[in-house]
Specification:
266 residues; alpha+beta; endopeptidase fold (from Nostoc punctiforme); six-stranded antiparallel β-sheet; two-stranded parallel ribbon; 5 helices; 8 strands; 52% helix; rod-shaped
């Protein structure tokens, strides 16, 4: 035994029996293979030339990138188109709002103008009626100072005698009349032959102003030559006429229905 055998660190490790057997087997196999190859002769083994083609990763990647770029471009185009459409819609809405406001303004202005014109016309009508009443009142005062005589007095007596009779369109008496039928009969009683209808009677004599009326003058309503109603002025600011089916022949103040004009035939 060595003089250092008693020191542990100098001791040779014991080989494991199983590892030793394994190594022996591997070595034997390698030697056997060499021996077989030597017996086979000098033939050389052909080199392996088969090429394994690996898949190209960039092909699919470039396709995906191209598709993504195209999709991005399409999204950008869609957004731009939508922006244009939104801007056009906003412009159209603003124009419509402006047009509506202008239409409302014009309608209000037209309404105000019509109201002003109506008020002006009503004021003019009231002024005209007031003037007509004033004129008729003046005529009443002037005519009341003198009484009708002669033929005029006879005409007045005739029409007053018919007050209360019925009104019938086309009536010529003796108990029912229309306006021109009563006037014609009254003047016929004093030998004056008048036309039958009010239009012709309104131009049968000399036109006189309403401020210069005399008893026995023929009053008319409407235009001279186109009058739609006639009566007889009896003095004192009053007239007699066959008015309508509701009232018949009546005695009324000139203020009740101011006439348009008058003619004098006596």
């Amino acid at each position: 035994m060595s003089h250092t055998a008693h020191i542990p660190s100098h001791r040779k490790p014991r080989r494991n029996a199983s590892k030793t057997a394994l190594r022996a087997g591997v070595a034997g196999g390698v030697l056997s293979t060499i021996a077989v190859a030597a017996a086979a002769g000098p033939a050389q083994a052909e080199p392996v030339t088969q090429t394994i083609e690996m898949p190209t990763l960039t092909t699919g990647l470039s396709t995906a990138v191209a598709a993504s770029a195209e999709a991005t471009q399409q999204v950008a185009l869609d957004l731009e188109t939508q922006a244009h459409e939104d801007a056009a819609a906003a412009t159209a809405a603003k124009a419509a709002k402006t047009a509506k406001a202008e239409a409302v303004r014009k309608a209000e202005a037209k309404k105000k103008a019509e109201a002003a014109a109506k008020a002006k016309a009503e004021a003019a009508l009231r002024a005209s009626r007031s003037e007509a009443r004033t004129t008729l009142s003046s005529a009443s005062v002037a005519s009341s100072s003198s009484s009708a005589t002669g033929s005029a007095a006879s005409v007045i007596s005739f029409v007053k005698a018919q007050v209360g009779d019925a009104y019938v369109s086309g009536g010529t008496g003796p108990n029912s009349w229309d306006c021109s039928g009563l006037v014609q009969a009254a003047f016929r009683s004093v030998g004056v032959d008048l036309p039958r209808v009010s239009q012709a009677q309104s131009t049968a004599g000399t036109q006189v102003s309403l401020s210069n009326l005399q008893p026995g003058d023929i009053l008319y309503w409407g235009g001279a030559g186109s009058a739609y109603h006639v009566g007889v002025y009896v003095g004192g600011g009053q007239f007699v006429g066959a008015q309508n089916p509701s009232t018949g022949v009546v005695l009324r103040s000139l203020d009740y229905d101011p006439p348009s004009g008058a003619v004098r035939v006596l």
